[in-house]
Amino acid sequence: MIPPHLHPRAGALAAMVLLAGCAGLGAQRPPAAAFVVLGEDGAPLARAITTAPACPSITIDGRTLAMAVRAPFGAISLRGKGHSAGFHPEAASTPVLSCETAIPAGSTHVDVAGQALPLPQADIKRIVVIGDTGCRLKGREFQDCNDPEAYPFARVAASAAAWKPDLVVHVGDYHYREDPCPANRAGCAGSPYGHGWDAWNADFFAPGRALLASAPWVFARGNHETCARGGQGWWRFLDAHRYDPAANCDDPAADERADYTDPYAVPLGEGSQLIVFDSANTDWHGFKPGDVRIARYADTWRKVDRLARRQPYNIAVDHHPLYAFGANRDARTGAVTLFGGDAGLTQVFGALDARLLPASVAMLLSGHVHLWEQTSFASDHPTQFVAGFAGTAEDIVPLPRTAPPGQSPAPGAVIEAMSSWIDGFGFMTMERTGPDTWHVVVHDRDGKARNTCTVRGRHSTCAVPQV
Questions:
Q1: 67 and 100 in contact (C-beta within 8 Å)?
Q2: 235: helix, coil or strand?
Q3: What phi and psi values does residue 280 have, to the nearest 5 degrees?
Q4: Helix, strand, or coil here: 237?
Q5: Distance between CA atoms of 266 and 269, rounded to whole angstroms?
Q6: CA dist 244 to 212, 218, 240, Å?
Q7: pTM of the prediction?
Q8: Could you tell me which of 368, 435, 32 has the C-alpha nearest to residue 226?
Q9: What distance separates the 2 farthest-apart alpha carbons in the chain?
């Protein structure tokens, strides 16, 4: 018998094995998600989330390197007892690795594991605004996540992507699948839940895939992303700030740091910018004396004010409206009552400026209320747009065509125009027509225009008062 290593075919076989091994080194598992986040001063950050234990490669203008680890490989852990509303021990989830690489200014082509990423424009003219996109599974409220008519975020995202935006702004609340679907409810049967990757993927990354690939994103933090809810995923996947493993919502003792982030600006060109601020942990009841959040949000206001001094025209972005109405209907009498902007922020911001936001802020984009709404004021207040209508079960109590006499959503604000769309899913677009002017369109889930608005400075008017 000829020894194997001396066999005439041994060299050829060895070469084939070696070539196969080298080919395997180049092959990479596609990431579960890859997208671009705009951070402080609009700096683009490539993000990837992968179920592999190593980060994928990123190629920037022909140079290939491994992405850096943002948050280590693993499943999101349960938090301490008494601090984990919506957590269920049985809600096991797939472990993932979060990766990140800063994209140098002037880059012309970037891809992650062969998937091209969208790059920011110097002058941003076309913006999609969406919010409140997850499928509600909590308490007694269960949305039919398996029904694309009842939960249409994937359709909304695809239609918004087809509009070809330069930027996507999400005004908060991504994660809603907190409790298990009831055993007798076919509409959400089999849905993942809890605060791990599987629920986050089902709520946001999978249905939003087309829109994530279409343009860079600005992410505002909603109340569903506080530490006691989806904050762990927020820090790993979406937040634009540096990841701090000592303040990432894993440890309730660090929530005083992890539940708040500093505002930052994203330039739009032509003397305008977005100012993104974190309102996630406010309280719509208002704050009692001594509440630590009073000082926290006062600090937020001062930092917003400093940022707003950089440009003549500013659009603020947060989750909680300050200048808009919501409506409740009494279950016994059927009477409808209106409520105004967030009481906690109004209390703190109002103590620093009666207008609530600094004078150079001309517009506020928010979500939280599950509808689309526009308000404009004869008084010196910014125009407000609410875009919380992209997927989460919608509010169904209608707003009036005009504000009742004497009622205002914010102290001292005098309404000159308002418009709304209740119980309809879709997205909003903003197309810039001048340094401080915008053409706004309200689209349904299929992209059809349902209302149009014109913004001039801090004033706006819409074609119809109710869709």
A1: yes
A2: helix
A3: -55, -40
A4: helix
A5: 9
A6: 24, 20, 12
A7: 0.92
A8: 368
A9: 103
The tokens of 116 are what?
């091209």
The Cα–Cα gap between 67 and 427 comes to 32
Both tokens assigned to 453: 């608005």
Buried b (16+ CB within 10 A) or exposed e, 363-385: bbbbbbbbbbbbbbbeeebbbbb
- Please choose, from the candidates 350, 348, 409, the residue with its C-alpha nearest in 3D space to the C-alpha of residue 374: 409
Bridge partners (DSSP) of residue 130 are 170
- Within 10 angstroms of residue 160's Cβ, the number of other Cβ atoms is 27
Structure confidence by residue, pLDDT tens digits, 162-206: 999 999 999 999 999 999 999 999 999 999 999 999 999 999 999
Angle between helices 343-352 and 292-308 (to 10 degrees): 60
- Mean pLDDT over 270-299 rounds to 97
Q: Is 112 helix (H, G, I), strand (E, B) or coil?
A: strand
Helix (H, G, I), strand (E, B) or coil at 73: strand
Q: Are 197 and 33 in contact (CB under 8 A)?
A: no
What is the C-alpha to C-alpha distance for residues 38 and 118, in angstroms, rounded to an integer? 11
Say how far apart CA 267 and CA 38 lie, in whole Å.
10
Write phi, then psi, for 352 (nearest 5 degrees).
Answer: -105, -30
Contacts of 202 (CB under 8 A, 6+ apart): 135, 145, 177, 191, 192
- Determine the Cα–Cα distance for residues 467 and 457; give it in Å rounded to an integer: 24
**In 3-state terms, what secondary structure has residue 459?**
strand
Q: At which residue do the structure tokens 């012309």 appear?
A: 108
Nearest C-alpha neighbor of 286 from the set 229, 234, 336, 350: 350
In single-letter form, the type of residue at position 42 comes to: G
- In the chain, the N- to C-terminal Cα span, in Å, equals 86
Cβ atoms 89, 75 nearer than 8 A: no
Burial class (CB in 10 A: 0-12, 13-18, 19+), 26: exposed
- By CB neighbour count within 10 A (0-12 exposed, 13-18 middle, 19+ buried), where does 22 fall? exposed
Query: Which of 353, 358, 354, 387 minimizes the C-alpha distance to 371?
Result: 387
Question: Tens digit of pLDDT for each residue in 34-52?
Answer: 999 999 999 999 999 999 9
pLDDT at 412: 95
Residue-wise DSSP of 10-41 = HHHHHHHHHHHHHHHHH--PPPSEEEEEE-GG
Q: Is 114 helix (H, G, I), strand (E, B) or coil?
A: coil
- Residue by residue, DSSP assigns 34-69 as EEEEE-GGG-EEEEEEESSSSPPEEEETTEEEEPEE
